[in-house]
Amino acid sequence: MCNKMNCNSLISAFILLFVIHCVNGLYFHIAETERKCFIEEIPDETMITGKYKTQLFDPRTGGFMQTNQGIGMHVDVRDPEDKPILSAVYSAEGTFTFTSHTPGEHVICLYSNSTKWFAGSLLRVHLDISVGDQAVDYAVVAKREKLTELQLRVRQLLDQVEQISKEQNYQRYREERFRSTSESTNGRVLWWSLAQTCVLLAMGYWQMRHLKSFFEAKKLV
């Protein structure tokens, strides 16, 4: 049996893995020159897959219709150090994939590669982002590697265990970074308090000397 601390850590890891592995489905609207960016906190060496589909607003019907094939989407991904990971132009509907190499916040930006196709109109973009083993198409893996159903299930479980380990390492990394920031902040607050105390003491000493000189000049003491 596991002790209370280990059990709590294991449960937290599974909950975190479930939350992160859930597919983030959403849609948003962009204008001609608008750029939409999203932030994903991702562990290192983790695969991310994004699937998107665009629809063009039709002012006659008041709805959104299938976009012209001339419309494309530019996808730009940057890591926590603001280094480019992916920068490519895709069609009106497609999939982009990248792998993180640095843990932390990754910025995913999408915008249209052209404005002439929907001048003055809105473009609706449906976006699904999958992180970790949820980004893997196991049907393709099974077909490519000729895996049986049991072998495929074992492969999925191994990938999930590996992802749990990555998530735990990332949480430890965040805790270390937070502790370092807290210690640095506490040190600065301490030195600032000491500096304030020294300034107040110096001002008090100066005021006492000034008052003493004033009274001596007035011959009050």
Automatic annotation (TrEMBL):
Keywords: Coiled coil, Developmental protein, Membrane, Signal, Transmembrane, Transmembrane helix. Residues 1-25 form the signal peptide. It is a single-pass type I membrane protein. Residues 35-131 form the GOLD domain. The keyword Membrane applies. It comes from the Eukaryota. Belongs to the EMP24/GP25L family. PANTHER family: TRANSMEMBRANE EMP24 DOMAIN-CONTAINING PROTEIN. This is Transmembrane emp24 domain-containing protein eca. It comes from Amphibalanus amphitrite.
